[in-house]
Amino acid sequence: MPKSVLTPQAEDFPRWYQDVVAKAELADNGPVRGTMVIRPYGYSIWERMQADMDRRIKEAGARNAYFPLFIPESYLTREAEHVEGFSPELAVVTHAGGKELEEPVIVRPTSETVIGEFMAKWTQSYRDLPLLLNQWANVVRWELRPRIFLRTSEFLWQEGHTAHATEEGARRYAKRIHEDVYAAFMRDLLAMPVVLGRKTARERFAGATNTLALEAMMRDGKALQMGTSHELGQNFARAFDISYLSEHGRQELCWTTSWGSSTRMIGGLIMCHGDDFGLRVPPRLAPVQALVMVVKAGEGVEAAARQVVSDLLARGVRAELDARVDTPFGRRAVDAELKGIPVRVEVGPRDLAEGAVTVVRRIAGGKTSVPLGGVADVVAGSLDDDHEALYAAALAHRDARTTTVATIDEAAEATRTGWALMPWASLGPEGEASLAETGVTVRCLTLPDGSVPQAEDDPDVIAVIGRAY
Amino acid sequence: MPKSVLTPQAEDFPRWYQDVVAKAELADNGPVRGTMVIRPYGYSIWERMQADMDRRIKEAGARNAYFPLFIPESYLTREAEHVEGFSPELAVVTHAGGKELEEPVIVRPTSETVIGEFMAKWTQSYRDLPLLLNQWANVVRWELRPRIFLRTSEFLWQEGHTAHATEEGARRYAKRIHEDVYAAFMRDLLAMPVVLGRKTARERFAGATNTLALEAMMRDGKALQMGTSHELGQNFARAFDISYLSEHGRQELCWTTSWGSSTRMIGGLIMCHGDDFGLRVPPRLAPVQALVMVVKAGEGVEAAARQVVSDLLARGVRAELDARVDTPFGRRAVDAELKGIPVRVEVGPRDLAEGAVTVVRRIAGGKTSVPLGGVADVVAGSLDDDHEALYAAALAHRDARTTTVATIDEAAEATRTGWALMPWASLGPEGEASLAETGVTVRCLTLPDGSVPQAEDDPDVIAVIGRAY
Ligand SMILES: [Zn+2]
Ligand SMILES: [Zn+2]
Questions:
Q1: Which stretches make up the Aminoacyl-transfer RNA synthetases class-II family profile domain (chains A, B) (predicted)?
Q2: CB contact under 8 A, B66 and A72
């Protein structure tokens, strides 16, 4: 393998992360502090995430809509006399149309309030339920310590909001999004093992009666929350008067849910699968699964490479040609490593003279000489294996860095390098509060078989404890 | 046909438009003046537009990226001492992070300036060219007289920006977007005839050396600009220092293009194809092509309707079941008309007893009894015809409302109800200026065979003159 151009993970993980983001051409800092430019390669990964997630959300019955970027100040701040009194995460538009606005306008930090208002209009009768809405949009939360993809002042996300006639209906739907949409997406597309659990009261979303979360371990042993799905009880419906006329002619309050996932997942992907040579993109997600490289110019070399691309495309592999022979081959190979393209097929005059090409695998590692006619089969097989291999490696890493503990001190110790598992009955809210003082949190509560507890006080409940991004 | 619930077009066209937008559940006004909520049905139309346009843009070689919502004030306003001095279309964030910003931030009215800055970074060598970028995003231009989809303070759009080594390369690409992407999209997906032409110097985009436009006629005889593609010469490259090192080792300025289309096209779609019963959605665009309706409950009726849906899906028709028998059938039928769903298949107990269903066509009009086994063929055939019929009707309407004229007075008269065609050599910039005083503009310059003139002074050039949205 070529020498890495990145800071090694073991030396300085945050620096390694920054290096990958820059050198794999994923993103760049925008001119306004805390904002990001998602570069074409990074955006092509996001587009594939979005398309797959969107399909799953639609299969769960939700429909997309679009709500405005601007929210009246009065929706978010009841008392502030001057804009300095607003929550620091809010960006406030005070001037537009060439003059000062009578009422300042907030750039949405979420569309919750506007969506709530319209859900109230749209749920008139039991026939309108369930109302299942989703939105893909940019949102703004001013960040003082920004970090690309993980914490940016502007990010892209989807937020779902649903209204149901019964508590049971809302509960089932929040669970469906948690498991059938988010967990399945992370496992099957991102090749990321996630722990499914519920949040403790301390970590729960304000206004939620239950927050379901998905937590993934990064290469440095820290946790990243990859998505959440909230049961909101009737709290949200009461605040926005989301009610309906029942079949029995009574006006009833709805039960609602909300759920979201964002460009943060790209950060999770990088930190879960990346290594000292760059990103490693799971093959089902990869915009380019196989890069067919002309090593150097020569009689029939480019034609052979084109033929390989055709064979791969015909086999359903997303293949792309790299015939930029005026750029040194080594630089192009390093670039493909950095970008984490799962397979490189190197086509050069010497190999070709023997009717062969070289297949280089980014994920499993290794180079093999493959006869021209067999390339498509070898590559397609590698991609299948690579998905499993990446998932298994991430799981093994998580297991190796996870310790079952009995005391708070042991938990504090274990979370220096990974996660601690401790019975929630032993830890409890007080132990949780004491760990929180050192930045260690209960990521979620789960059951020994990996399922989600119905309630906190089930005696089998295990707290997954760690430091988090 | 059921009685219309809309203001008739002939009575009050703007009112008709508002009625359709509201009653077909396309969109609603947002809480901040000038903003809009795109409702699920309206958004499903936009999503299909976006997916098809995106595919065509990618086929033309451009790659998507994402640039920040916020732009430093200094990028857009060099002199303004206070934010009141900014252009009235700009929305200005003055507070964020809980305090007043040192430098106000503009909510992007376009991403041109930021994209320009990054294009300058990314075009180092001739190997980086052409650089073909596109972005899908929301933009904000404060509107004092907003109108949903047509003029809103926030709208969704795509903006493309490309850099080329030669003038010829830039020109060819602007033309490719104009014809192979925009015109083909409008003709083949939206079933809208558009006139392709170049703008006069007066109507040209500031900074462009040539603006290519697509103009469509609405049902009231007015014009709507559906998209533009600009050649920017080296003006933009000079302003942002977008240059590259040539093969000969010289630093050269690039030649750039930009091009855009937006949610405005939804307004165009409504006003081009809509009638007194609502929207008519071209079948290739329609999210639901055939709505299979259970007329009323009855032995085996719903099962039969489900079977029809399956048959249609198997035939590649986007079909949906409407089994909401607790809502009056008449209301559901009116709703389907309003939404412009191309075909309704009505499944009722009486017809079913004779092994038949009723196929109702929204675009061609008419009801037919069709034997159960033949529904899929009849519907699929109707959809093919409907695309052509819609296109032909729009073209016939445009032709009927277009008058060839010889004088400015005749042009003024003709543009009360439609378009005037007049030799540009006779009209000239002075005639253009005089018409502009009464709100009549040269929409574009075109040639008798429908092609785009290379230059204004070609003696065959025809001015397409009209009132515009
Ligand atoms: Zn002021
Ligand atoms: Zn202030």
A1: 33-282
A2: no
Per-residue pLDDT tens digits for A70-95: 999 988 875 566 777 778 999 999 99
Residue owning tokens 């989703």: A134
For residue B65, give how far its alpha carbon lies from the nearest alpha carbon of chain A (Å).
5
A128 in a structural domain: yes
Token pair for residue B85?
């001095």
Q: What is the CATH number of the domain that holds A65?
A: 3.30.930.10
Q: Chain A contact for B70, CB < 8 A? A: yes
Looking at the structure of chain B, the number of domains it has is: 3
Question: Does residue A422 fall inside a structural domain?
Answer: yes
Q: Which of B:88-107 have CB within 8 Å of A?
A: 88-100, 104-105, 107
Q: How far apart are CA B183 and CA B214, in angstroms?
A: 7
**Domain identity same for B417 and B459:** yes
Determine the distance in angstroms separating the CA of B294 from the nearest CA of chain A, rounded to an integer: 16
Residue A408 has a pLDDT of 97
Residues B223 and B371 grouped into a single domain = no
- Its pTM stands at 0.97
Angle at A409 between CA A404 and CA A414, to 5 degrees: 45
Domain extent, residue A415, equals: 404-466
- Report the run of H or E that residue A390 belongs to, with start and end: helix A375-400
Nearest neighbour of A94 by CB, restricted to B40, B94, B327: B94
For A88, which of B98, B144, B156 is closest by C-beta distance? B98
Q: Note residues around ion ligand 2 (Cβ under 5 angstroms).
A: B 100
Nearest CA in chain A to B38: A66
Q: What is the C-alpha to C-alpha distance for residues B267 and A331, in angstroms, rounded to an integer?
A: 49
Nearest ligand to the CA atom of A100? 1
The string of DSSP codes covering B309-373 is HHHHHHTT--EEEE--TTS-HHHHHHHHHHHT-SEEEEE-HHHHHTTEEEEEESSS--EEEEEGG
ipTM over 0.95: yes
